[in-house]
């Protein structure tokens, strides 16, 4: 999470978080997932600022989204997820990618 000491730094942190969320949304949309929802949860929890939920049709589509997120965010932003759950197929049809301020649930 971003340390917040002044209004300006809080605003910068929020913009950075929303930029990351939008980049993730772009990938999720490109890979044709459905029922995509972006939730602003920063007033409800300290765990994240944004939560993205999307429906995928199968494990192959989920893996394609995960791979694209890992590749694109690493190359463009030098960002790696803090944690991956269910990404190896052990999630029984779901996967969670934790990017700190943005959490993705497929």
For the secondary structure, the number of strands is 5
Name the helicity range: 40-55%
N to C succession of SSEs: HEEHEEE
Q: What overall geometry do the principal axes of the alpha carbons give? A: globular
Mean pLDDT: 82
Concise summary:
It is built from two helices and five strands, in the order αββαβββ. The chain has helices at 7-30, 59-77; strands at residues 34-40, 50-55, 83-85, 96-98, 102-105.
Question: In words, what does this structure look like?
Answer:
The protein has helices spanning 7-30, 59-77, and strands spanning 34-40, 50-55, 83-85, 96-98, 102-105. Helix 1 (7-30) crosses helix 2. It is built from two helices and five strands. Strands 1-2-5-4-3 form a five-stranded mixed β-sheet, covered by helices on one side. It has 106 residues and is of the alpha+beta class.
Throw out a few tags for this protein.
single chain; 106 residues; alpha+beta; 5-stranded mixed beta sheet; 5 strands; globular
Fold blueprint:
Elements: H1 7-30, E1 34-40, E2 50-55, H2 59-77, E3 83-85, E4 96-98, E5 102-105
Parallel strand pairs: 2-5
Antiparallel strand pairs: 1-2, 3-4, 4-5
């Amino acid at each position: 999470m971003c340390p917040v000491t002044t209004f300006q730094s809080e605003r910068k942190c929020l913009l950075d978080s929303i930029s990351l969320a939008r980049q993730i949304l772009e990938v999720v949309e490109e890979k044709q997932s459905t029922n995509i929802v972006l939730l602003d949860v920063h007033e409800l929890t300290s765990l994240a600022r944004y939560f993205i939920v999307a429906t995928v049709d199968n494990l192959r589509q989920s893996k394609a989204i995960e791979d694209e997120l890992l590749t694109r965010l690493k190359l463009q932003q030098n960002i790696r997820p803090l944690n991956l759950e269910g990404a190896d197929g052990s999630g029984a049809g779901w996967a969670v990618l934790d990017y700190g301020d943005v959490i993705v649930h497929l």
